[in-house]
Design brief:
By secondary structure, this protein is of the alpha+beta class. The protein has a single domain, classed as HIT-like (HIT family, subunit A). Helices cover 26% and strands 26% of the residues. It is built from three helices and seven strands. It is globular and about 35 Å long.
Length: 121
């Protein structure tokens, strides 16, 4: 079976896409109203720091409109992701009633973004 994240790249149904990255909805929302991810268009496990910074910046920018219904969202490390062999980051709201909220609390947070412009790392 092929990589499901590679399939997302070729589907072109993302929220944003260019030659380097794709931003798309996650397959399973885990009880959240919105949950999106940025992934490398190449099947790689790790990315250089400059690529990482660029992808994170675009994810945060796109997420501003996706998460406009809430005051904050978080960008999470893919530590507990189902696809460990294809680099990606996930952005999610902070809904305490979501199915995976307890797991989110144990996942490394990369950035908490306040929709009103304040960013915490």
């Amino acid at each position: 079976m092929g990589c499901p994240l590679c399939a997302i790249v070729t589907e072109e149904e993302g929220l944003f896409a260019n030659r380097q990255i794709t931003i798309a909805n996650t397959k399973d929302k885990q009880g959240h109203k919105a949950r999106i991810m940025v992934l490398s268009n190449r099947h790689v496990e790790t990315v250089p720091e400059q690529f990482y910074t660029y992808a994170l910046g675009v994810l945060v920018e796109v997420s501003q409109s996706v998460f406009s219904y809430t005051s904050k969202f978080v960008v999470l490390d893919s530590t507990f992701g189902r696809n460990q062999d294809h680099w990606h980051l996930v952005a999610s709201d902070l809904d305490a009633t979501a199915d995976d909220f307890e797991r989110m609390l144990t996942t490394p947070w990369i950035q908490v973004v306040d929709i009103n412009g304040r960013t915490d790392v």
